[in-house]
């Protein structure tokens, strides 16, 4: 579905991503792991064209996504993103937040947008809060609304950029449970995360990044029990007793 080919990204003289290659296949749940500063979030932002790569390609169903706004908008209508800071519209209710993209981007009817919003808010346990505004919600509730909003676009792929890192510890579980349900439903997901148990138990593949490179790409059972790379072993020794 998505191919990343020879992708590099620099900010001035600082090379953040270095010749990255990988493919995302339908139904895969890929967790991107690595220390802070390894390039994980920049990679995800390049995949979704929030950052423009310095070189290399991002392809969707075999077609390169060029830096043309019309192509980018079309791509983003099929490949959604959930941010660590939620990015909800504060001047809209929960229901309006979930209807907005389907109405404005996909041009579905008001009735269809409403039905989608209610369906997905029920899935994430937020249907009772349809008339609430973001400032009335906890962090975990905001993130569940953000996930529902992404689902309302009927995406083929959903990208998550550290979706639990801005949450209090007691709220992390409620968001991860929603993501586990999505994974079991067959949704294709690409997730930057520090949640090792989630990556171990839910992902179908792990990409481990270090200094802008993908240094390991393996199934979780292999990565967590027999990592091949020295940096992978060092990283895991800090997280897993």
UniProtKB/TrEMBL annotation:
Xref: CDD domains: ABC_HisP_GlnQ
Domain ABC transporter: 2-236
GO CC terms, sorted: plasma membrane
Subcellular location: Cell membrane
Transmembrane feature ranges: none
Membrane topology: Peripheral membrane protein
Family, as annotated: Belongs to the ABC transporter superfamily.
Name of this chain's protein: Amino acid ABC transporter ATP-binding protein
Naturally occurring in which organism (per UniProt): Wujia chipingensis
């Amino acid at each position: 579905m998505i191919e990343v080919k020879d992708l590099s990204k620099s900010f001035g003289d600082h090379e953040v991503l270095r010749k990255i290659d990988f493919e995302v296949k339908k139904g895969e749940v890929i967790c991107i792991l690595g220390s802070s500063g390894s390039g994980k979030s920049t990679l995800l932002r390049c995949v979704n064209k929030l950052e423009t790569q310095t070189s290399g390609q991002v392809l969707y169903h075999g077609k390169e996504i060029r830096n043309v706004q019309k192509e980018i908008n079309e791509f983003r209508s099929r490949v959604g993103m959930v941010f660590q800071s939620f990015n909800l519209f504060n001047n809209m209710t929960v229901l309006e937040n979930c209807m907005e993209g389907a109405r404005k981007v996909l041009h579905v009817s008001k009735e269809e947008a409403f039905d989608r919003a209610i369906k997905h808010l029920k899935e994430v346990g937020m249907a009772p809060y349809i008339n609430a505004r973001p400032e009335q919600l906890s962090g975990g509730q905001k993130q569940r609304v953000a996930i529902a909003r992404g689902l309302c676009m009927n995406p083929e792929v959903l990208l998550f950029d550290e979706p639990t890192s801005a949450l209090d510890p007691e709220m992390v579980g409620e968001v991860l449970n929603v993501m586990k349900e999505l994974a079991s439903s067959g949704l294709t997901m690409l997730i930057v995360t520090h949640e090792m148990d989630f990556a171990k138990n839910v992902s179908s593949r792990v990409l481990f990044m270090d200094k802008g490179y993908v240094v390991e790409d393996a199934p979780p059972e292999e990565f967590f029990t027999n990592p091949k790379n020295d940096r992978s072993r060092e990283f895991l020794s800090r997280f897993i007793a």
